[in-house]
Amino acid sequence: MGFIADVLKSCFSRLKVADLEQLIRQWGYLNNDELSQLDFSKSKLCVFRDVLSFCEDKKRHKEALRKVNDLDLMCTVKNSTKKKWTMYKLQDKKSGSKENWYSDPEKFKRKLQQQVDLYFDSAASVSVTLQDGALWCRLYLPSGNHFMTANAVYLIHYPNSHCFAISAFKVSVQNFLFQCLSNLFGYHTLTSMNLSGLQYKSLFQLAFNKLGETSFGKLSDVQSLPFISRRKRKAEEIEREPNLRSEDVAMKRHRSLSLEAAFGEYQQPVLESLRFKVEAKFMGKKNIENFQDNGEPFRCCVKFEGPSVLDGVRNLASCGLANEPLPKHLLRVNSLGTNNFVLKSKEKS
Amino acid sequence: MAPGETSTSTNRCMTTPQTFKSRLSHRFTPKRFTPYGRTPQSRRISTAVPTTRGRRKNVHTRTKSRSDSSSEAEDLKGFTNVTWRVYKLSPLYKFSSAPKDLKRYGQLLSSCVEAANQKGLFVENNVSGKALFCVQEGLKKTADDPDAIQILVKGKKGLGTVDTVILTATLCGVEMEGDLLVPDVKGHFTYYPVLLVKSTVAMTDVLITWLMRHFDCKISPLVFPPVYMAWMIAMWSGALANTNRKNKPVELVYQVPSECEGIKKITYTIEAADCLRVWNSIHDSKSDMFTEEEMSTFISSLEEHFYSLFRVKLNAMQLSCVGTSLCYIGRDGILKIYSAEHVSCILRHLTELSMEHFSLV
Asked: What family, per the record (chain A) (predicted)?
């Protein structure tokens, strides 16, 4: 029961007090009598102790363990932005394999459990749920007797898409884990897209923009995809306030039109960072008389960070902190489907 | 500065029983009166501090120290790889570095920590602290420098049974140029320009409050405006910490103005060797002094390269943190030193900055 207590403690520590009651009720493991005995106005620690005692009273260890694993997955779904997700794409379909696309969470769980049992200890557990059209999976790959959050790996997959998002995992389990997933999806290669962030829907949107299609071919009706956001961007203050007058209307209008042509009128996908590794000729020698140009590239790394970097890049131009036209490597992030770039000077042939 | 008044340090007014003269007695000054020191962004470096005349010392300058050996680096190793908060101080009244006085200060600070603990000021309850004051070796470089003092508070956190160091602090002044204290009051005051502290916020507050009350001084954070950090980048990006190992890259962190929503900061990291190449093209390595013009050219050339890549104007943003092979400095007075061999020169520069603040008041 110590293991169950550790998992429950981990769940409760991640949950906000306001979300606790709703999630416990949604969990469905406690009956109405037990739920009525819980006092959610007390501290989280009190509620945790009560829930743990109910789990222990049931005396069905395996079922209790499975249920707390499900609760852990529900907590992750609720607080998905607390995890950093990395996108991988599926390539090189295995010959002879059928399209293993599952939208039924139970089927998906059974298949995944089969693969996990082949490569990992029998104590490894799998939980799957369907949320907002996506399959959410939790794999617990134990190393030792105690529960460790580092041993839990989470995965998000939209059925019929050629990519998935995965949370951090130990390097030691990578080979076996990817072998499981390769067999599950029926593809030889799982390639990192160099795309990571906290907002999984934005990551899937960027990945879809890059990959461009699902197993049914290119979809003409993009708006039906659950991860595509179609909210228009917030109007600028000058557009919102009719009493504000700009001194340079023509310039601002021209800038606004060119930015709309470059970025569109919809909100950008949310990315927290954009990284560029640059190896290019040094271009800052205008004021340097005797620059020692030995032909070596000038190596630097640039990182843009913020709550929504793609919107921020657009705003840099609209605030006048960047001059137009912006370079292609800033404008094409949406279609390139990555947030880690390498920029090099073109070599003279 | 009032007309007719010279800028030598001996004429800085310490003739009243207070250690500094009230600004109200300065009449006919062309400067606007404020109760605060003039912020560095508004001054021209070439005229603000006559002693430096818009120049800064090279990190490789021969110091006036007695020894520069590796044993000194060993003594100062405790300063490296630790995140310090930097404070500036006004002179301490009746402070003594004699062993019996240091022992007494330790007892007084211990009782102050205990009293704060009783009041429940610490998040971790039962922080029982014993304070120790001792002389820090390796930082007194000239006869004008006061003995550097190390302050340690050891104790048990919470229900722990092992003694740990809860607070580490150092009072120092390295290669202090000139004496800002007039002879009349020099016997009563000791001037430490720099206080480095590593501890929790609550414990740091206790130490600072105790020092201010006990020695009638004023302690405030030593903030580093962007122009100071630009100087540090120019001075230290040319210094490689250890030529046998790969040096840390030069890092400039720019804070994006809040009106540009979506991006908070831009981190611009440059390989140390490439940065050195640019610096050597601007600055004559044989010269000991850097000029403001060299510093401006260096920073603007790096920003120009950035602009050519991204068309983003870094010169419209402010530096918030800078990092070199030697150290990492944040605008709010955060310091982390990586190289034990260069602790003295970094502290020397901090001493200079702190003394500039004091002399401007």
From this structure: Belongs to the CENP-N/CHL4 family.
